[in-house]
């Protein structure tokens, strides 16, 4: 599955959890019997429209928009759900969940889920969702940290000089450099084609010399000093560094900027909400412990710890 942005991890986890749920399995069995609304199938295991709709209904607005733009993402998750259900059926046939160690894990998971969801509900009672005014205030206070520095989209032709090659290696590299410079000087010369044929850095050479987008601070100081003065489409003179010769082309430039409020609103709301839920949870637990003091028999505990030694 292709990489996804961090905020989609929770979405995919939710879809995966649907495959684990008894409700999800029951819906699939119903769809199978009726023959209607089946979206995907593996063997006699199916995922129905009801399953997918339930999963999508659990997403927030931004996540639904992402799925709408990239249906392949949902396709991959549905595939995972099918495979998971197939494995679940095999496990059920062997009564796997009845094994003592598995039953113990399930009980721990049940307790953890109940505890976490209950604490979340208590925290959210305190008004964890920020208002529009609060979000605006958070945005104004975070502008410095939100600033995106100047960026350059670069391409290069790199001619390596082995450190232990001596004068002979230097001469061969210089001859190759002269040939590249001559090719670039021709009217209508194509930097990309010349990079593919001559650059000694295979990864960028396969892309016509393209390195990609780099923040200004990510560029080597010697190269940064040169490209910072160039406009889009310009190329540096050959630069001799420790590893060899570099000819760098500026393909595009993005000036530093602060993203507008609407661009970061959703991420900012999630950040503020997470911080508030965390603070409210800690306050709730502190109050709960204050009302119900913890008492531990340290002697008995030490004995148990000693007995657990291998």
UniProtKB/TrEMBL annotation:
Q: Which SUPFAM superfamilies match?
A: FKBP-like, Triger factor/SurA peptide-binding domain-like
Q: Which residues form a coiled coil?
A: none
**What is the recorded name of this protein?**
Peptidylprolyl isomerase
Q: Which domain of life is it from?
A: Bacteria
What does the UniProt keyword field contain? Answer: Isomerase, Rotamase, Signal
**The organism's taxonomic lineage, starting at the top:** Bacteria, Pseudomonadati, Verrucomicrobiota, Verrucomicrobiia, Verrucomicrobiales
Query: Which residues, if any, are the signal sequence?
Result: 1-27
- Every copy of the PpiC domain together lies at 149-252
- Is Signal there in the keyword field? yes
One Pfam family, short name: Rotamase
């Amino acid at each position: 599955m292709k990489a996804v942005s961090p905020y989609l991890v929770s979405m995919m986890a939710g879809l995966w959890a649907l495959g684990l749920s008894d409700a999800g399995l029951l819906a699939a069995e119903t769809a199978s019997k009726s023959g209607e609304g089946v979206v995907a199938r593996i063997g006699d295991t199916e995922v129905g429209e009801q399953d997918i709709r339930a999963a999508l209904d659990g997403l927030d607005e931004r996540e639904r928009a992402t799925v709408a733009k990239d249906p392949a993402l949902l396709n991959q998750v549905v595939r995972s759900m099918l495979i998971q259900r197939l494995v679940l059926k095999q496990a059920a046939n062997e009564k796997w969940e009845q094994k003592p160690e598995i039953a113990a894990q399930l009980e721990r998971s049940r307790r953890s889920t109940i505890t976490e969801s209950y604490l979340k509900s208590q925290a959210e009672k305190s008004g964890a969702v920020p208002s529009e005014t609060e979000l605006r205030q958070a945005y104004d206070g975070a502008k410095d940290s939100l600033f995106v520095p100047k960026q350059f989209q670069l391409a290069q032709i790199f001619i390596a000089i082995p450190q232990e090659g001596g004068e002979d290696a230097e001469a061969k590299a210089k001859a190759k450099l002269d040939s590249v410079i001559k090719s670039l000087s021709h009217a209508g010369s194509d930097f990309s084609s010349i990079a593919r044929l001559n650059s000694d850095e295979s990864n960028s050479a396969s892309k016509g010399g393209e390195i990609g987008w780099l923040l200004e601070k990510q560029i080597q100081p010697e190269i940064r000093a040169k490209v910072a003065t160039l406009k889009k489409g310009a190329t540096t003179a050959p630069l001799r560094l420790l590893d060899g010769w570099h000819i760098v082309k500026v393909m595009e430039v993005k000036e530093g900027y602060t993203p507008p409020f609407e661009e970061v609103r959703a991420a900012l709301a999630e950040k503020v909400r997470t911080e508030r839920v965390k603070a409210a949870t800690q306050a709730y637990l502190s109050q709960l412990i204050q009302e119900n003091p913890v008492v531990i028999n340290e002697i008995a505990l030490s004995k148990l710890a000693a007995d657990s030694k291998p």
